[in-house]
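Quick one: structure for this chain?
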Amino acid sequence: MNFPLISIIVAIYNVEEYLPKCVESILNQTYSNIELILVVDGSPDNSLQICERYAAIDSRVKVLYKENGGQSTARNAGLDIAEGEYVGFVDGDDWIEPDMYKKLYESIISEQSDIVQCGWYIVNDLGNKKNPVGTHSIERYSSDEALDELIASTGGHLNTSVCTKLFSRQVIFESRFLPVRAYEDDDYVFKTVATANRIVCIDTPLYNYYNRANSTMTATFNLNKVALVDVQKNICRLIKNRYPGRFNEVQKTLCSKQFYVLSNLLNSKSLTGANAEATRVEADILSSYNDYMTNPQMGINRVMLVLIKYAPNFIWSTILKLKFL
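Got it. Here's what it folds into:
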């Protein structure tokens, strides 16, 4: 039996310490018909040399080098050359269980789905593993049901990480990652789920997420995280066209995220560019004021909106800074 090709894309930046474990966990998969696309995103360390060594000994490895543009642009570069019928993503400082792609492939076929997601472990610096989700039965979603789960953000099994998923070519090549430097997974999973017919989650933890202190998402607030607003705007546009009955909820979430980002910017005045970004986000909120105030689900956000529009700056900024301390 000929098994279809799975393309696995790894975006790489400053992870030379962790990269061999990551790459070897992929090359040693029990599902062997893979192409491993290693995209070195202008990394100043020895990551490129490490990747080239693996390419020299395993013909399944392809290496791309590009100028630094962030994980989104690196993944997009990988998608541009991927030839597989299915596609997965792994972060360069993480690793996967030996049978991850075998189990995901078996599930995507047996369940006749477009996207399948597995469970995962969070691993700390001591090597201790935690399964944050626990045991579930198989969860099956239509596209609308999956969007409902993502919008509700209940902390259930289905989430917006691309790394725990296997995507069919039909859904993944209709989209590209938004060129931002944080939260790009959220936008991409919403887009692919919106075009899928069936999404399945299995409970087996097969992905190891290394929760290191200086990773992109665990680092303290920085200007990259302003992308939270741009990503949510994209999700709002998608839902307005694809699933308008849930638009009010995602618009409320956008407003709340704008408040969160603005608060962090106000609390980070010493951060270069924070003042300019704060001014931009404030103007963005005010430009949407009328739309927000007519949203019946806006709730307590209305109070903050009125303060930002009509109260002196020092009053609402003080309240906002205290709210998210």
